[in-house]
Design brief:
Elements lengths: L1 E9 L2 E7 L3 E6 L6 H13 L21 E12 L2 E12 L8 E8 L2 E2 L2 H4 L5 E4 L5 H4 L2 H15 L1 H27 L7 H36 L6 E6 L27 H14 L1 H7 L10 E6 L2 E2 L6 H23 L4 E5 L7 H11 L4 E6 L7 H4 L3 E6 L2 E7 L4
Parallel strand pairs: 3-13, 3-14, 8-12, 12-13
Antiparallel strand pairs: 1-2, 1-4, 4-5, 5-6, 6-7, 9-10, 10-11, 14-15
């Protein structure tokens, strides 16, 4: 439960100190006033990644970033279970250093002690629902892998560490593949990186199998309710390396059927992945890159058997994303023992009236949620009576109003 937020030189907020209310908070303001920036700060405290910026440097206030030394801070005081915590992120930009090059450092402190980022992702947990969240269904495989990575990473610190290890091993293996191809070296040099890739990759695959199965169990009934019982939702994991055992004489058709991979152990996945890497070695050498592994995984979302990632309408995709985000909210709660903060940016503007009401009804059960809108008229008067309203103008909170229900 977030209690206090402090921003310094973050985006268009030069300085902000706010006590955060429980329940629902509605941020009202015109475009480019700072509503989404506030959500971005909260989500950054959870994932240490921006859902808008391509680099952390863009998060530093434009005017402050021109100084020789610029520091942006995001600080939150919150309660996790029964324990109070203080989390601080510092983005330190040195425009003038010994090398004459700008340098950005990121420091994260939990209760005053510096921490490795991978170990505390999700300590202050949050789920975000943005207009661009439709990419989970309509976007690229990378968008869907990102969705899984951010969700799993908040409840499983070891998953983040596995991602870091896998990325490093993949980069080293690809570099070696290119070197061996150019100089015709000994392919056995790949053995070390094959093993490193298999160890970390197996952890990623195993976590994705479990997470997607659990998310589907939560999302399917939500999706059926949102479609008034007309459509079902299935989430299919399609790993680039599929650990599901296939008999040598069995011909696997490219049919998107649900496969139960949940019974496979971590060691089985690792051994199978390592064997496949070795079998694919000649092909990888020809291409100069690793052709199989979690970095090429895909996820499909099916509604009544229709692959929404290919054939679904905009409305169907949006409904699926709503169901997935509501499921993610419940899934994180089931893993960490309490609800994450639910962040929703201008989501009502793209929903028809029935979907708006369904979503708002679901929010009633959230201990803490933050919504943004440029049009308060999209919300019914009865809903507005139950929420705290902040008016945002050029990075300032001009008015705080709590309206009690009559």
């Amino acid at each position: 439960m977030l209690k206090h937020l402090s921003l310094t030189n973050f985006r268009n907020y030069v300085r902000l100190e706010m006590e955060f209310p429980q329940g629902l908070l509605l941020l009202v303001g015109g475009n480019a006033q700072g509503k989404t920036n506030l959500l971005e700060a909260l989500y950054y405290l959870s994932t240490f990644l921006s859902f808008q910026a391509e680099s952390d440097r863009q998060l530093i206030n434009f005017s402050a970033a021109r100084d020789a030394l610029a520091v942006a801070r995001i600080t939150a005081e919150y309660q996790r279970g029964l324990v109070e915590h203080r989390l601080e992120v510092r983005l330190i930009l040195e425009n003038e250093n010994r090398n004459g090059m700008a340098r950005l450092r990121k420091e994260v402190l939990l209760d005053g002690v510096k921490q490795k980022i991978a170990s505390i992702v999700g300590h202050l947990s949050a789920v975000v629902f943005l207009p661009q969240s439709i990419r989970i269904v309509e976007g690229s495989p990378e968008d869907r892998r990102r969705f899984l990575n951010l969700a799993i990473g908040q409840v499983m610190p070891a998953y983040n560490e596995a991602l870091v290890e896998y990325t490093r091993a993949l980069q080293q293996r690809n570099a070696l593949l290119k070197l061996l191809t150019e100089r015709e070296g000994d392919p056995d040099q790949l053995d070390f990186w094959d093993l490193e890739l298999a160890r970390s990759g197996a952890k990623i695959i195993r976590a994705r199998i479990e997470a997607l199965h659990e998310l589907e169990e939560l999302a399917a009934p939500l999706h059926r309710q949102l479609t008034r019982g007309k459509e079902g939702l299935a989430c299919l994991y399609q790993p680039a390396y599929d650990p599901y055992p296939t008999h040598p004489s069995q011909y696997r058709l490219p049919v998107k059927d649900a496969i139960d991979r949940g019974q496979l152990s971590l060691s089985q996945i690792q051994e199978g992945f390592l064997e496949t890497l070795r079998k694919n070695r000649r092909q990888d050498l020809q291409r100069g890159s690793t052709t199989i592994g979690p970095h090429r995984d895909e996820v499909s979302f099916l509604s009544n058997g229709l692959d929404l990632t290919v054939y679904g309408s905009r409305g169907q995709g949006r409904t699926a994303v709503i169901a997935l985000k509501l499921a993610e909210l419940e899934w994180v709660r089931s893993k960490v023992g309490f609800y994450p903060i639910f962040l929703l940016d201008e989501v009502l503007a793209e929903l028809d009236p029935p979907r708006r009401q369904d979503l708002l009804d679901r929010l009633a059960d959230c201990p803490q949620a933050v919504l943004t809108t440029a049009e308060a008229g999209l919300f019914e008067k009865n809903f507005l009576k139950k929420v705290t309203v902040w008016h945002i103008d050029h990075g300032r909170v001009l008015e705080t109003a709590t309206v009690s229900e009559e």
